[in-house]
Amino acid sequence: MMEAVSGDERKRRRVRVVQRYLLNPPVKLVVWAGLAPGYVLVESKGRRTGKRRRTVVGMSVEGSTGWVVAEQGRHAEYVRNIEADPHVRVRLRRRWRPARARLVPDDDPHTRLHAFDRPSHAANVRRFGTDLASVRFDFTSA
Prior knowledge:
36% of the residues lie in helices and 32% in strands.
């Protein structure tokens, strides 16, 4: 007997395929080189494999804190990895910075996204997202 798949789940699967195989490979190179302001690479440890996983995300930095609005919330693999091990690295302005990341369930992701002051980024997150969630990154010294 087949399990019914929700519209949100179908959308997540389509977005994941497009991002993983079409968008992310060239965008990772651009972000690595520091040529995409407002975007960073987040390196987390795979919760099952232990391998390093790098994901491109839009981040707003306020002092020693970074904020990300995860399009797929807890459905995003990097968010699941962060929940398993919050110690991450963030490639910001062409250098790696250690950070501790955590999901902030009581933060309003729509308000947080508006605070990024990047309307096109906010529009894309809302368009492709199904379960927005705020993730806070506290940068630490090495």
